[in-house]
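Q: How would the structure tokens look for this protein?
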Amino acid sequence: MKKIIISLIALLFVISACDEKELGPITESMGKPSTVTQVQTTSIPGGVLITYRIPDQEDLLSVKGVYTLTNGKTKEVVASFYENIIRIEGYNDVQQHVVELYSVNRAGELSDPVEVSFTPLESAISKAYNSMEIVQDFGGARFSWLNPDKGILNFEFLAEDSVGMIRPYKILTSQEDTVKYSMRGFEPEPIIFGVVISDLWDNVTDTIFPAGKIITPLYEKKFDKSKWSLLQLGNDVTSWNNWEGISEGIIDDDVSTIGHSPVGAMPASFTIDMGAKAKLSRLVMFQWDDDCEYAWGNPKRFEVYGRADAPSMNGDWDEWDKIMDCTIIKPSGSPIGTNTDADLAALKAGHEFTVDVNAGVFRYIRIRVLSTWASTTFTHIAEVTMYGSEVN
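A: Here is the predicted structure in token form.
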């Protein structure tokens, strides 16, 4: 029993001694490190690339840059001794700035600072802010902007609620170079829209409003498919009644039925007579989901064309106005056969493509499928739905 008590006391002593141990450099100092030399700068959007020659010292660990951003926040970036370049980002102006470079040894000692001056190029957030346009759209407003440097930006879209308060409706993160985004679901009554942009370095823009601040959304509805019919043109697919398909399955408002082209019929086109002239706001393409999600003959790339008056029955493409090119995107980007919940949700909702608000008036719509997910020589379509407003 005494041996057990003595052992416990010894163990507690060891633990206590460990708790009191102070952390320090893993190596003893070999002297204050020398500074970096031969410093050169290359300005980039929102920052600078700094190259240098590291000092020839055995115990050199890294090079550290210390700088203060436009928003007043002090930052540090560290590069190992294997590198000779530091990337500084996060500025939102084109003024001259200074970064201090320090050599750091394994004992944690810093060299004297080397001050490096530079002037960043215009940042991604500034380019998006200056290029932002907000215009009237079907059921709401359309936002468009440029992000040529593909910076990661956050967009908080705002709209006026029923009691006149401006509140967030949607947050989007994007690094695409050219973006058009529509906020929909609003009545055709005057309303205030806006957007605030931020980036990864806590730079935040003022709220951007459209010219005149108030927008009246255009009226939008889902078109009545009971007025629709398929028009057989000379160079369209002769029949979509193959395998499980029926031609009317493409436009019968039932995603469980499909139209299926024959083998060897690519590119595959079909023509819809909507029964009335209309301004289109968006088109929704639905895949067949019978164990072939983002696979088999489901469309991947297709074109949309339109005409206001009756076309020639030979289907001459020169008579048609191209409305848009469309590519169905799989949210996860995962390979065929692997589908995430986000992939399946997008498939169930249908893949939506926005028509430019300045596009013309159309009654006849042609869709030409160019490729499928499995590069098949046939395609199958569950449903095509369109929105907009009829024109008297």
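Residues 1-21 have pLDDT under 50 and may be disordered.

The first helix runs from residue 2 to 19.

Upvote if useful.
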